[in-house]
Design brief:
Length: about 375
Amino acid sequence: MSTRKEKLSVIIPTYNERENMALIIPRLHEILAGEGIDHEILVMDDDSPDGTAEAVKELSGTIGEARCIVRKKDRGLSPAVIEGFRRAKGDVYLVMDADLSHPVEAVPAMFHAITRDGADISVGSRHAKGGGIENWPLKRKVISWGAALMARPLTSCSDPMSGFFALRPSVIEGAPLKARGYKILLEILVKGRYDRLVEVPITFRDREVGESKLGSRVIVNYLEHLLALYLHPGSAPFMKFLFVGGTGMLVDLGILTLMLLLLGEGRSEYLVSQSISFAAAVSWNFVWNRFWTFDARSGSAGTQYFRFFIVAIFAFAVRFLLTTLGVDVLGVREQPYYQMLTLGVIVVVTIINYLGSRLWAFRK
Ligand code: GDD
Ligand code: MN
């Protein structure tokens, strides 16, 4: 642990939040000063016509340091947060809404999860044990739940839609963040570099002052954002692995057919054709898995290819062994039991292939 005192940068994106400034900024100062946490407050305002910036200026003289950065280009919630990251000077960045939906009292715990407990990211989570949502209509709860479910394969975080999170600057250094959606945390969880994520349970309270800026456009925008994140190299690797495996099977069949046409259909021709189509499919899978499924282009391609091939041959041997065992020892020959046996064997072999690839061939 470092002995130097670490500093927190609180980033608050705003659009027409004048009245909330007088509520949240003094409260933040009070709580952070009470905990002895060095901090700066950055209000990232999209040139709000209601005088949000002036409100910050008035407050900042009296109590402590709070800066308002007025943005006139590239407006929007995510771009404002990303610019906040660029301007922040602390050792930990924390993002929260202006409207007191995110409890200010949770900020020290989120800061300490990083500085004391060694997390890279901490998330103020409504779905962690002890968290919740106050007075939301059922419809909004259902939409929120469905949205979180669709993001499940992308991250282990239970509340990736949260706009309340803290992180080490190293998490986003060099990450190709796009300010596409409103869900900047999800973008970071998919593209950032981190080992440890901690969830701090919070109760989300609907705003009392001002209006929500996020309307129905948000849903379409979210779906587009999700699609882009699913296609991003390295995200949801198991789904990508299955998809690549499926295309590999087509390559296998196509080349096998071609070879048999070229060579003829004798017993040894079959063996040659099978081997060549197997090798072609493994190579095809290798390329896609290296660049897309696991985004492992930084490792040595030769080593990865060699290992990937070993895993494939090993899995093939397991398949042969298990099938033979089922048929000859257990006597599974009749339909539909033979199909069930084959299906079970394929599942086992797929898992072997996946784990072998992830934990060994493409290990980072
Ligand atoms: N700079 C900037 N530009 N800030 C914006 C913009 C914008 O275009 N739109 C909204 N904000 C600010 C608001 O001023 C507020 O501080 C914060 O972003 C959240 O906006 P709300 O309008 O209060 O959104 P919400 O309450 O519907 O959404 C909240 O809950 C979601 C989870 O359900 C936000 O926390 C989201 O980030 C969160 O995902
Ligand atoms: Mn809100």
